[in-house]
Automatic annotation (TrEMBL):
Protein name: Voltage-dependent anion-selective channel protein
Similarity annotation: Belongs to the eukaryotic mitochondrial porin (TC 1.B.8.1) family.
Organism of derivation: Nicotiana sylvestris (Wood tobacco)
InterPro entries assigned to the protein according to its UniProt record, in alphabetical order: Porin_dom_sf (IPR023614), Porin_Euk (IPR001925), Porin_Euk/Tom40 (IPR027246)
One GO CC annotation: pore complex
Length: 276
């Protein structure tokens, strides 16, 4: 565990990663190569039904400055420049997309032993301002996440979160959608040796009075192979197996079954990530 409470996006992250990360029903291929000068080039392809999407990302690191340039099949270019530790605990991120001239955004993150702050500002005439802040320690933290649209003069996002972290347990509570949705999550490490963990998330919508419950687990069969499974109260069951056949190169097979409509065919996803 780190010394400080982290950023607002860290609240409930361990539970979300266990329940949702790496699950997919598409086919994805990623390969990363490095030039002699240290430039990392990552090419990705994603097949969604009959649709094929691809992009190429070039990453260059120079001391504490990282520049990422991504080009996709629609000729969109996304550039991100990250300056890390310009001052102790400070990170600055500048991003923009071409040809979308209104997409330019500047974000500043600051991490302290008892606080984590992230502020972003759209570089336009009437920008959207985002602010999130967390106060507390690595054991107990309280935070908020706000967005203000200066064009209409209204708050467009207002969330709040609470997190409690113990040696092998993380619990969080989030109030989202301007108070309309209440979400509680739980992450518990059962066995550190095999990275066996269980997680659950319960979300209640006040306007529809509906609950969504998702539970999941993960387990390491060996140091290179991990299995995960999850199920929700809507009857969707998912499982995956991920194998690291060489350092940082992952092969993942995942599947989804609708237990309330077993006559429908199951969905399968495949992901292959190659790194030298």
């Amino acid at each position: 565990m780190g010394k400080g409470p982290g950023l607002y996006s860290d609240i409930g992250k361990r539970a979300r990663d266990l329940l949702y990360r790496d699950y997919q029903t598409d086919h994805k291929f990623t390969i990363t190569t490095y030039s002699p000068t240290g430039v990392a080039i990552t090419s990705s392809g994603l097949k969604k039904g009959d649709l094929f999407l691809a992009d190429v990302n070039t990453q260059l690191k120079n001391k504490n400055v990282t520049t990422d340039i991504k080009v996709d099949t629609n000729s969109n270019l996304l550039a991100t420049v990250t300056v890390d530790e310009a001052a102790p605990g400070l990170k600055t991120i500048l991003s923009f997309r071409i040809p979308d001239q209104s997409s330019a955004k500047l974000e500043v993150q600051y991490l302290h032993d008892y606080a984590g702050i992230s502020t972003s500002l759209g570089l336009t005439a009437n920008p959207i301002v985002n602010f999130s802040g967390v106060v507390g320690t690595n054991l107990l933290s309280l935070g908020t996440d706000l967005s203000f649209d200066t064009k209409v003069g209204a708050i467009t996002k207002c969330n709040a979160g609470l997190s409690f972290t113990n040696t092998d347990l993380i619990a969080s509570l989030n109030l989202n959608d301007k108070g309309d949705a209440l979400s509680a999550s739980y992450y518990h490490i059962v066995s550190p040796l095999t990275m066996t963990a269980v997680s659950a998330e319960v979300t209640h919508s006040f306007c529809t009075n509906e609950n969504t419950i998702t539970v999941g687990t993960q387990h390491q069969l060996d140091p290179l192979t991990t299995v995960k499974a999850r199920v929700n109260n809507l009857g969707k069951a998912n499982a995956l197996i991920q194998h690291e056949w060489r350092p940082k190169s992952l092969f993942t097979i995942s599947g989804e079954v609708d237990t309330k409509a077993v006559d429908k065919s199951a969905k399968f996803g495949l992901a292959l990530a190659l790194k030298p």
